[in-house]
Amino acid sequence: MIRDKKPDFSGVTSRVDTSADTVGRSTYTAQRGDTPSAIAKQHYDEAKARDILFAANRDVLDDPDRVQPGQTVRIPPYARR
């Protein structure tokens, strides 16, 4: 009787990034005609949440009222006030 060798997983590692920068966040790629207010309205049902988007994307957005087509912006969690 030949016994099958069991797989050796001793060298397997994994990593889960649960830093505050990634938990609960998603991204959106801007389309032609998009504005931060329109993106906020789409994701949060509130255009006034554009300030949340701008704050989370200061590294890629220069103006709180403009986004370029093709730009990827982070969509952070948002708690309505």
Describe what is shown at a glance.
This protein has about 80 residues and is α+β, with helices and mostly antiparallel strands.
Note the main attributes of this structure.
alpha+beta, about 80 residues
In words, what does this structure look like?
There is one protein chain. This protein is α+β, with helices and mostly antiparallel strands and about 80 residues long. It has a domain of about 50 residues. It is built from two helices and two strands. The chain has a two-stranded antiparallel ribbon with strand order 1-2. Helix 1 packs across helix 2. The longest helix is centred in the middle third of the chain and has 9 residues. The chain is elongated and about 70 Å long. The N and C termini lie far apart (about 70 Å).
Rounded mean pLDDT score? 82
Topology, number of strands: 2
User: How much helix, percentage-wise, in residues?
Assistant: 10-25%
Tally the helices. 2
* Strand content bin: 5-15%
The global form is elongated
Largest sheet: 2 strands, antiparallel
> How far is the first residue's CA from the last residue's CA?
69 Å
SS class: alpha+beta
Residue windows where pLDDT falls under 50 for at least 5 positions: none
Spatial strand sequence of the major β-sheet: 1-2
Query: What is the string of SSEs from the N terminus onward?
Result: EHHE
Radius of gyration: 21 Å
